[in-house]
Amino acid sequence: MKKLSEHVLGTGSQAGMVLGDNGMVLLSDLTEDFTSDPEACEAFLAWPGLTEGESASSLRTFHGDDYLCAFYKDPAQNFTFLSGVPYSEIVGPMKVQRNLSLAVAAAIFLTAILLQYIITKRLYRPLEAITEELRDSKYAGGSDMDEFSLIRHVYENAIDEIRELEEENAFYQPRMKSDLIRGLVLGNRDIAQTKELLEKNGWEIPFEGMFLACFFIENSDSSDVLAPIVQTRISQHLHETLSPLFYTECVPVASDQVICLINTIEGIPITFDELVRLLEAAKDELLTDNHLVLTISLDGVTSGIEDLNRVYRRVLELKNYRFVLGTNQIIYPGRVMELMPEYMTYPDKLADEILACMLHGKQKEFTENVQEFLSILKQYSYQPASLLFNRLYLDLLFQMQKLNAPDKDSYLSAETLHTPATLTEGAGVLLTIFEWYQERKAAAEQLKDNKHFERIEESRKYIEEHYNDYNLSAGMVAEYLGYSTNYFSRIFKSITGFYINDYIRQIRIVKAQELLMNSDMTITTIAEATGFSNPNYFYSIFKKETGLTPAAYRNAGQRNG
C-alpha cells in the first residue's frame, strides 16, 4: 500500500489522500499515522463540505502540525482527491523575509540617527553660523536697538570665553605654540602679547642666542597636497638628529619652507662646526631616504624674541647664494665671506668668445666657454655674480634683437629669463639663447627677399640714432618711413619678432648700461641721455630689465678690471 501511495501521490512534505464515495481513505501518505491514531484521522477529515461540494480549502491540524488543505471531487469516478501543504513551509519563508526587512529598516533608522547626531553635534557649528548672520546684518555696526546690542554683547563675550578655553586646551596648545613662533618669525605678532602668552602657557623658549635655520624644499610643488606630510617628516628628522644636543622648535612657514629654531643646552659643550655637520648629515639622510633636495640657510645669533624677524630676513637673503653654490647646500655668513674677492673682474675676452661662438653657430665651443665663464662666477658672492651673469646675458640678448626674424614661439626678454636660481640653471638659459639665435638667424635669411626688409633696416638705424629723443615712438618712426603707425607696427613685428616699443626700450637700457659702466654722469643725466624723461620711470624699467637698480649696477660694475 505504501509503495502504491508513493507511486500515485508522490513523495515529499505535502500530505495527499484519495477518498472513496463513502469517505473511506483509499490511499494516503499518512496511512500509517491514520491507522495508529483513528481519532486524529477522524478529526482531520471532519471537514464540512468535504463530501458535499466539488472543491474547497481549509486549514487542518494533524498531530499538532497545521496543513493548508484543498480537495477536488471527481463526480464521474466519485473519488475525492485531497492535498495538504505544511503551513510552516508557506509562512516560514515569509517570516524570515519579514524579519530581514525589519532588520534592514532598523539598521537604516539607527544609521540615520547616528548621522544626525554627528552632523548636529560634531559638524554643525552654531557659533560660526551666528557670527555670519551678525556680520552680514545691517545692524552689525551698532544702532539704537538695545535688544540687539545686548544680544551682540553677550554673544561676543561668550565667544571670548570659548576662545580662552580653547587656548587652555592641552590638545590645542601645540598648534597655538606653532602659530605663535610662525608669527614671530614672519613679524606679524605683537611682542608684548606674545610674551604674555608664553608666560601664561609656561612655554620657556630660549630666544637669546638662538640660531635660525630655514630649510627650502627645492623639489617641492607649491600646490602639492603632500606638502604638510613632507614638512612633518623634515621636522621629525631634525628633532631626532638635534634634540640630544640642542633645543629645537620646527615650524612650517610656507609650502616649501620649514623654520628650525636651534639653541644650545646648558652644560653640553658644542661648536658651530658641529651644528653644521649635524645639519649636513640630516640633509643628506633626507635626500637619501625621502628624495628631498634641500637648501639650508643658517644665521644667528638672536639677541632676544624681538630679533627673530630680522634674522629670518637675513636667512632669506642667504638663500640667494645658491645662485653661486647650487642647491643641496648649507649657506651661512662664514661661507659667504669665503666667496668675497677683493675686487670684481668681468672676463671680457671670454665673453667675446662666447658671443662669437653664438654668432657662428659653434654650439660645442659655446657650451665649453659658458661653463668656464660660470666657473669664474663661483668665486664671487651672489650680487656681483648675478651682475656679471646678467651682463653676459644682456649682451647675447642684444645680438638677438639685431636679427631680422619673426618670433616663433615666445618673446625672449630680460624680464622672462634673467637671474636664474642657480648657475646650473643659468647655463640652461644661455644655451636657450644660443638655440633661439640660430633659429632666428635662419628665419632672418629667409626674410631678405621681403619687400619691407630694407625699410625695416632703415627704421632700426633711425632708432639707433634717435634713441635719446623723448618723443621717439612707433608713430615717429612710421612717419619717417612714410607708413601709417598700425601698418608699420605690424610689419616691424612680423620681420623682427619684437614690438617696436619693446625694441626701443631695450636699446635705451643697453645704452644706459654702457654709460653707467663707462662714465661719471649722474643717473638722472643718464636717464635723460637715453630718452627717459622721468628718472623714476627709468629707475623702475632698469631694475625690471636687469634685476638691479642703476646705482647698484654702477657700484658693482665700475670695479671691473
From TrEMBL:
SUPFAM superfamilies: Homeodomain-like. Keywords: DNA-binding, Membrane, Transcription, Transcription regulation, Transmembrane, Transmembrane helix. GO terms for molecular function: DNA-binding transcription factor activity; sequence-specific DNA binding. Residues 457-556 form the HTH araC/xylS-type domain. Pfam families: HTH_18 (PF12833). PANTHER family: ARAC-FAMILY TRANSCRIPTIONAL REGULATOR, HTH-TYPE TRANSCRIPTIONAL ACTIVATOR RHAS. This is AraC family transcriptional regulator. The chain crosses the membrane at residues 100-119. It comes from Hungatella hathewayi. SMART domains: HTH_ARAC. Gene3D superfamilies: Homeodomain-like.
